[in-house]
Amino acid sequence: MLIGIDVGGTFTDGVLCSEGRIINSAKHPTKEDDLQDSIFAVLDDLLQGIKSSNKTSSITQVVLSTTLVTNLLASGGGDEVALVLLPGPGLNFRNIDFLPHTYIATGAINFRGRVTEPLDQKEIEEIGKLIVDAGLHKVAVVGKFSQRNSSHERKVEEILKGRYSHLEVFRGFEVSGQLNFPRRAVTTYYTAVTREKWAGFAAGIEKAIRDRGIASPINILKADGGTMPLEVSLHYPCETVFSGPAASVMGAFALTMDRQTSVVVDIGGTTTDLALILEGKPLYASRGAVIGGRYSHVRSFAVRSIPLGGDSAIRWAGDSVTIGPDRLGPAACFGGPVATPTDAVNFLGEGKLGSLSLSVGALENVARRAGLTARELAQTIVLQVNERLEESIKEIFKAWEQEPAYKIWEIVNKRPVELDRAVGIGAAAESFVPSLANRLGCRALVHRYSPVANALGAAVARPTLSLLMHADTEQQTYYLNLEGISGKISPGWQLKDAKELARKQLQQIAEKRGIGRYADRYEFFLEEQFNMIRGWLTAGKLFDVGVQIAPGIIDDFKGVES
Amino acid sequence: MNKNNRNTYAYLQAKKEKTASAGQTGLVFFPAFDWAISPTHPEREERLLYTRDQLFEEGIMDLPQICQYQPRLAEFKDIARVHFCVPDIETQATEAHRIAAGGALVIADALMSGEIKNGFALVRPPGHHAMRVVHGNRGFCNINNEPIMIEYLRQKFGLQRIAIVDTDVHHGDGTQDIYWHDPDTLFISFHQDGRTLYPGSGFTDEIGGPLAAGTTLNVPLPPGTTDEGILFVLDNLVLPVLDEFQPELIVNSAGQDNHYSDPLANMAFSARGYALLNEKLSPDIAVLEGGYSVETALPYVNLGIIMAMAGIDYSNLYEPDHSDNFFREERSNLKRLEEIVRELSGVFRRRKELVDATRRQNSGSLLQKHRQIYYDTDQIRETQLETIKVCSDCPGYLFIESAAVGRRGRYNIYCISIPIKCCPRCRQEARDQYAKMKRQDSKSFDYLYLQDRPDDVYLQYDFHLKREKAL
């Protein structure tokens, strides 16, 4: 049996499932100031009925998707951190108000990993004093091109800790080896901000789960739709942001299990999240997740969130009917204060939800002011919702089609998106997705598990791991984007050697992280080689290789009952 | 530089999706990582690799000042508007060339729609040595990206007066050839003295054709010229001339081989010098041309151009081996530059006089010029007879007879070009000439071309197959 719990902004959902069937599901309002309480309430509901019969031992996986880190970053509830940047030539960071407690130091590395400017030991010592005087204990150190030569970052740590041994130092090259220095700085900084609080939260969760007699692995859902073991998450708390929308996309996978092109429409109470699955592969945000208003190196699905949900408040604005962006409470049919899109659908669909008369009353309230009948108003609302969703979906297509490309074959072979299907997630999906699909000219998929598909998606998601390797045969060095790993290679290396090493490294890291079982599911997503010519002779080769365990569904899950 | 030192609080805030806005700088970055002239050629896959690393690591595309675009394939018609390709466009313009030209078109469209305030097509392969007639590759170029973009802008958006400032270290002889007879296109090239560098042209006496004299200006720079020298030319010649010409659009044909580390030339320009040049010139569109110091110059120069165009503080941009005292200009050089500036300012001032005199003396007649062109990359020798109609009402039509011998054999072609502002009488004469040539069933030519810009129609007639293709 599998347990999936998705902590959303409004509700926390959970499912207990086995062999494609949901045995138990639960829903509780999310208490933002006490997420653990919401999680335990859902967990206890799920375990009702199986607890007594001592079946908790047959639970094989618990996956949790949570907003803790997102909330910490939004509320400023994390730890105060100093950021030491080594930007070298380029943007003038001394004139940029980047993040609080940012210190700029000299010392530069270039794109080949060569030191082009030494560190200034005295300057680092002075920065160390300023950091300590400011009462800070945590320091993130990030240098431009540090992934290609980490010596400056290591040395900064050595100098700082040599003087102030109590400082905890986070090094950029270990957090992400992808190109993009500001994103690396942001990711390293937020890792330092959240790691301690996340560790406390994780310990509480683990204890509660063990106290309930569950001995299975506990996994955390990441923004890329994959899971990581709880103990791994202690190093990478930022990976847990935006796991909610990722849970929805994985839910769509769990419901479909095929290679079609779908738009995932997750209609919540306040917002609707839209994501794209292209021929069975989810579309990633090309710039990484946006954390605290800044781009990061956290790999995340390209999710567009629009302020339009089943409970969005409907008003007459004097010249037009407006929907949202706010939610004043549940839909009128469930005792809420104002008419909502859910009420409009309820009215047109002859009242399957809550109280039809409450829906009609709330709609008439607005309709009277707008000079419409309740039916006309309801039709206007449904049309407007559909139009706005359609427009946003088309924008996603357009954004994808306009993604930059750097090779001829990418331009020549670019095709427009041909949508097969709209997959509805969330309780309100049934009301809106069929007509939306009609407008988009594709099929609609709304399953009876759609209302809890997000939690289902979390329950059945498998681990992911994405490795990028940059290798330089002239420097005889390779670097990984993961864990700051680098090493030596021979000058005669070819692309096949690069690929082989990348694959082996992926396997080793997977094993170390307790997800070795999935290491044979690797796929290469990047293979580039360049000859370095100096004076008409080949001086060496540069390779960029990407290999990953892509997001997917665990082996034990074969699909939902139809 | 002070105006750039504004506080940049919002620089690294994430943009809301891809919302281009009028204040942004458009960027097409197309490094063509799967294209090379040959494996060890300077124009190879590796050329923009370190530029990619530098731009990506800098996170420059994440800044709200930058809006990145994807290039597209230029249409064959976009190319035919400028070039007579032998034996056909498909042979001369591969997909890589069409994407490089298409990158410039994407920027042009974004600029005209008001999505961006200016834009940089950071594309390869380059184009500024490609002339009107294309028998093959010259100076690493097959088709000329800037004229393709400019003629597209004229057809689609009705622009007229356009200035091209060619800042590549090599004389932009292809662009000069294409606009030699066009008084509405001001072409200014500064480059290393042609007596010391390919293509061996671009002297001060090359000032444009008889009806467009003074709208081509060439500044041959002594080898070793520094930031100071080039900026002297910019301040004292280029900017005043632009101010008087009042172009609707300024294009920087942005080669980067004036850099002190370039392996194919001998100049001493720096990345910050390039940034300052672009800040002062303030081009609407920049298009990458040459520049082969792939590791020590391009990553920094490209970054500098982007920063300058986007109004981003570039005071911290420098090459790792840069030292401020490299870059003082020698007195004797400055003196030589002063003379050139004086001479060319005079030519530009007298341009109307010069053209009027030609018209008075030769109105109604046909003026002819023989020339030879060599294609270094493809090892071709071309001879041309150019004939221009001197009309008192318009820039006149142009006939070109061209013969070339290269590895593909020998081709003889006859080309007719009707400029967009051609008067009705000249237009008719040129069209009649095409019809007459076609009827004659010539044995001396392989192909006949008509470039009818007023109607935006481009014909190519094959004398052997007796077949006409129209675009």
Number of strands of chain B: 17
Number of helices of chain A: 15
What is the second-level CATH architecture of the largest domain in chain B?
Answer: 3-Layer(aba) Sandwich
Q: Provide the CATH superfamily of the largest domain in chain B.
A: Histone deacetylase domain
Classify the fold: give the CATH topology of the largest domain in chain B: Arginase, Chain A
Q: Major sheet of chain A: size, sense and barrel closure?
A: 6 strands, mixed
Beta-strand residue fraction of chain B: 15-25%
- Give me the number of helical elements of chain B: 12
Q: How large a portion of the residues of chain A is in β-strands, by DSSP E?
A: 25-35%
Structural class of chain A: alpha/beta
**CATH classification, class level of the largest domain in chain B:** Alpha Beta
The percent range for helix content of chain B is: 25-40%
Helices and strands of chain B: which structural class? alpha/beta
Outline the low-pLDDT stretches of chain B: 1-20
- Count of the separate structural domains of chain B: 2
- Spatial strand arrangement across the major sheet of chain B: 2-1-4-10-9-6-7-8
From the N-terminal CA to the C-terminal CA of chain A, the straight-line distance is: 19 Å
Distance between the termini of chain B: 48 Å
Kindly state the mean pLDDT of chain A as a whole number? 92
List the quaternary state of the chains. Answer: heterodimer
Report the uncertain regions of chain A.
none
